[in-house]
Amino acid sequence: MPKKKTNNIKYFLLSLVAPVVGILISAILLFFLILLIRKGSISDTIHAFYIMGQTLTSTQDLGYIIARAEPLVISGIAAAIAFRAGVFNIGTEGQYYIGGLVASIYAIYFSFKSPSLHWLNVIFVVIFAMLGGALWALIPAILKVKKGVHEVITTIMMNQIAYTTAKYFVNGPLSGVKGGESLEPKTMNFPAAVDFHRLYDIFHGHFPFPKYIPLYESLFIAAIIVFVAYIIIFYTNWGFEIEMLGTNPNATKYSGVPPKVVVFNAMLWSGAIAGLINIQEIFGIKGYYTHHMTSGLGFDGIAVALIGYNNPIGVVLAAFLFGFLRTAGYNLQFELGIPNSTMDLITGFIIIVMVIASVAMNRYISKLRRKEVLSEAGDR
Amino acid sequence: MPGDIILKMENITKRFPGVLANDHINFDLREGEVHALVGENGAGKSTLMKILYGLYHPDEGTIYIKVDGELKPVKFKNPQDAIKHGIGMVHQHFMLVYGLTTIENIILGYEPSAVIDFDTAKKEIQKIMDESGLHVPLDVDVEVLSVGQQQRVEILKVLYRKAKILILDEPTAVLTPQETDELFNIINRLKEQGHSIIFISHKLHEVMAIADRISVMRKGRLVHTMPKSEATKEKIAELMVGHPVLLDVPRPNVTPGETILEVENLTVESDTKGIMAVDNVSFYIRAGEIYGIAGVEGNGQAELIEAIYGLRPPKGGKITIKGEDITGKPTHVIRKKGVSHIPGDRHKFGVFLPFTLADNSILGHHREENFAKYGIFRKFSNIAQWAREIIKKFDVRTPSEKVPMSALSGGNQQKFVVGREISFEHELMIAAHPTRGVDIGAMEFIYRQLFEEKKQKKAILLVSADLDELLLLSDRIGVMFKGKIIKELDNTSRQVTPKEVGYYMLGGDVEIHEDSDIAGGEQSA
After folding, report:
1. Which residues of B touch A377 (CB under 8 A)?
2. What is the ipTM of this complex?
3. Is residue A267 part of a domain?
4. N or C, which end of chain B is more exposed by having fewer CB within 10 Å?
């Protein structure tokens, strides 16, 4: 029996080869890129890597890394749920615009005004953001199940509609721009009882928590999502049926699981979670809604899910990697004038190398397993 | 009249992991002949043609093509290479671009000039149409054309690319009888113009009607090539089915009990709208009885199973299990009513290859309380225990239930599937080709398991392309032909002969009408 145990560890380690290789090769590429940008100065290049290392040791930078990773974690999980079912929901982008919008309407018009009911407001913000996201996924889901329209087409179109819908509400019914104030389009401010508390304000006085860390209550929401997603994916029949469908739709049908129902549910849940992607910025940082918020979080989440193997833990690690690269990128730009887009390039490169490496590794692993089974079973 | 040999395939061998798809095949084609290639699904016809068309590369063997009056060895890197050498393929599933017109589809990829000169193209296509008799409207969206017309477009495409050798892959599968007659007229016309045609089919009366020579493939080998004058349908059928090693597994003596499955006047539509794959079929199976369905593949067996198993809603009729109506119910309900199913294509329908054996062991029953708390939270130790029992009881060779299904050999995968379906509570077992692609050892094991089922007083519906298997196992045999059970044979004491079944498989008396129809069509050509 001990032999089997070591084998499982072996296969687990082998599955980590691809990400490690991706990051290592990208680091080498980054080295030469910086060398090129700094006109061949080796010392500058080494200094650049030193700065990147410092990003990981400074408390404030760590705070920024987590703040940048948080929406990507939610986005990555939203995408992963659909991907596991073999549904390519690339509409998480639009789903978070609408999720945020619906939650904002709640916050402006229907929220509890008493600060003691803040926690109820948080719960309702989450519920309405999820409803908004699910609503935006509902139309592609219905079209796919009833008419067989491919979700990539419909979700992309829904993204566009989401943006213009948000723009309409911000400039129209919800507009908070009054004469004499800033001209940046935004909605009315949320009541104070809705605004997410900073972690500093929560922990202050209980234990030392650094003051300039831009983290909010929404971090707990992201953590809960990771935990629940992990349980659902690996410990429940919902996750099992999603996995079945994503692996072999025909056999799924034969075992009596209706593929359409699974597709529909996966799409809606993916959308519901996507609705929560940007609540940190809307309800924490800003305190009002605008269509001029951080965009592209949905698409980044797709990359995060890809790198994280559609696994919640993998998604967290990948989101952390993205957060780190962004933060380190800002520091490099600030201190050495290395363009921030260098980091985008590296991110893309990591994805490509990893995807190639993981395909090769998976092939190798399954070959190894087959050989092992055949030799142990004494079978031809 | 057929002339010289223009194509020769010598010692063609192609291996796929675990399968010898083509085993040293020798095949040739003469100028102006129709050479039919027949065989059951999986016999290796498609592989051989894909090699000829440059889609696959042979592991061994050489292809010779007549160039300037001389046979020369050629190597096709891709289909473009094959087209350059005058080989064109008409696929069973059309490769047409909807939204483009007929003419655009025909010239696609072979436009006469960079700026498309439609007039020249049209003139050329018109000429081909006049010569071959293939007339289709050129300036309409191909989507609006009928299936028969779309097939003509496919043939025109091939002719436009100047093909001399045409591969027609089961061209009649999608056609109505009238369209089939028209196609045969066209084939004869093409023949007269010196084209050579490889005609792939498993419909024997069509092969007899159109072919000059006939080659039969079975299990990756080309077993026989003969001119039509030497061929009879019975002979072809015999060669197709073959005489595998006869396994003699003793049949248990079981007195049939109450009726378990009753099918009354069942009618099921095929994928093509309006055509009934199963046409007014009635039969019943009692407890402790094995009912075999014989028939050349594609005569409605698959659709019959899908209807009983809840995957295809019937158009009419009634299906009952122990008197309870299950007509049109979804699969998960039908499984709960006590129906187990060994699917015909295990990789496609029976297993999830990347999943562990444990996960594969509970399919369709994963929501039962034994495997999941409240039907939701999976009970992993119970699932593993269940999988281990199947592995032990059905002698599946594997180190543990934790390995992925893909790591097992084909025979062991099938044993696992059979074991799983037997292990679930059931009254009716639908076994479709239960021994396809497994070795003799696994085959015998599966036969014994099915007899064990019989002893346990289960009702078993067996569909198989292997005639010997049917005769060995079944108590009664229903022969399907064109969607109907045209004959039911009593085999309680194994008295039915392969010849008898074969006669009805080809339609029995019904067949005679068919042939005269086609012969008539041929004369008018």
Report:
1. 397-399, 412
2. 0.83
3. yes
4. N
